Structures are given as structure tokens and as C-alpha cells.
Amino acid sequence: KSRTKGSQAVVSTQSTGGTAVIDHMNYDVADTGNHVLIVAGDFTSTEVIVGASPSPVLFHGVGMAADSENPLVIDILRASDTAYSHSPDQDILEYPLAIGSSLLLVAGMQARNNARVVVFGSHDMLSDKLYNAQAQTVASTTSQEAGNRGFVSAVADWALKRNGDLRFSAIKHNKVGEEPSDAAYRITDDVEYSIIIEEMRSGKWAPFQAKDVQVEFVRIDPFVRLFLVPDSAGNFKVSFKVPDVYGVFQFKVDYDRTGYTHLFSTTQVSVRPFRHTEYERFIPSAYPYYASAFSMMGGVIVFSFLFLYHKDTKPAAKTE
Q1: 163 vs 278, which has greater pLDDT?
Q2: Is 263 within 8 Å of 205 (Cβ atoms)?
Q3: Taking Cα atoms as reference points, which of 84, 62, 58 lies closest to residue 12?
Q4: Fewest Cβ atoms nearer than 10 Å: which of 70, 208, 248, 288?
Q5: Looking only at Cα atoms, what is the longest distance across the chain?
Q6: Rounded to whole angstroms, how far apart are CA atoms 144 and 216?
Q7: pLDDT in tens, 216-228
């Protein structure tokens, strides 16, 4: 079996002529022949790529298999469990390229530099004919407008970074109740951190809203990891206590989610110990040591008094 690589090892496709995705259980009623016009609705759960609640689409084309060695591939649209890839006019003499949900109809990839590529297995899927068609599986009694137009538009917007592009600005950190400064923090200080995050939405920048953005306070390893709380303007904030360890730390935001560009930010700060004039006069945890010191002093005084002023009585002389 010969295969051709597409889009820098994103997917593999069969090079055998006449190959198509065939589904004898989920084909459209308009297909009275080889069942190659199928109704597909197994979309990725990432809303930023396919939009909110996309309708099933009509597909007539070749299937693809994701490169198992490429973890960056995104399964945008998968075939149903009963689909397979083969030539409808040939007997099946060997295992198909892929079957079931491992057969991709539309695949995408976001590289580590945030560049995006999308591969459609069907030209007809982007045609006016299927844009304006009605979709109805052979097992269904009702038809609905095919979701090709909305689905393709959403995927194209994502590929062109009109959706899902993130940027950050206005990073601030300071002691609670004080203005931001470049001064070093002291161990156990209460500090607050904030960052504004925006996302490209339909070609315009808008406040980003998510509850899973985290900030880490790192010195080689994270000492603090907390969720940032956003407001309506996309300003993410959090407050925490600096750990009782001094050194060079970083505020680190590393947000990497499917469908969004990788957001990475680090801000370096110093943490110093207490100065000798900043310690408490009496430390509660040291009370046992205070008691032992004073008890030793009292013991020395008592011993000195007894040693200096105690006089042994001489025994009376014996008489014969």
C-alpha cells in the first residue's frame, strides 16, 4: 500500500485512485449508489475551532489517518464507527487505511510556533452545492440544512487566526495594598499578581474568559500554583503569600490549550529574608528556649548564693 504524506506529516492518505470514505449506515438519502456521500457529525469538542453546536455536514472525499508520531495533530472531524476508506469499485483484499473514528475527514495542526494548517479530505465539502443542500441519513425520517457553510467558515477563521489567537499585556505585581515597584519581596509577604489576556474573536480582540489559567511562583520548581480569577475586562488576578524561602523567583503563566495559541509569560523577581531589625521581639515558637535560658540563669543564682553563704557546721569535739 502506498501512501502520500500531506502537510508536513500531519496526515497520511491513500494514493490509490478512486479511494473514498464509505459508510453504509450513515450515508445521505441523495446517494443511491456507492454510499460515498456521508453525513458526518463527530466534531472535535474544541468550540473555538468548529463553533458552538455545529450541525452535521455532508462529506464526499478521501479519508486520512493522523500521524501517530505527531502529537500536534487535531482531529477536527472524524468519521463514524461504521465508515472505512477504500475504492468503492474494488474488492477489499487488504486492511483499509483506517476505519471508524480513527478515519479523519478534516484534520488540523498548530505548530510550536503557533502556525496553523488545516487539511480537508473533500473539495465538494466546500462547494455551493453542499452549502445549500439538505442532510438526511438513511436511518432518519427528517432532513435538516447541512452545516457545511458554518463549519467550514469556523474552521477557516481558526486557520487564519481570526479565532483562538491569544495575547497578554499589562503584567503587574506588588505587595497587597501597595503600588507596583521593582523592590525585592520579603519572605511571607502578601503579594498580588495580575495580567490582561485577550483573544481574537471573529477578527477582533476581545477579553478572554477562562477559569483554567494558572500562575506559578517558581524557583527551579513551583512553590505556588494558583488559578487566576478573571473579570469582565479580561484582567486575571490572584493574591498569595510568598513562601518562606528566599532566592530568585519567577511569576510564570504557561497556558497551552487545544485550539488556542500558546501563551507564555515570565517575570523575574527577588525574594529576600528578614533583616535583623525585622524579626519579632519575642517569637512564640521560641518560648521553650526562653524558659530554659531563664531557668539556667535562676539555677546559677541559687547555686552561687548557696556556694557563697552556706557554711558547714564543725562537729563538736569529743571529750574523754
Answers
A1: 163
A2: no
A3: 62
A4: 288
A5: 147
A6: 48
A7: 999 989 999 999 9
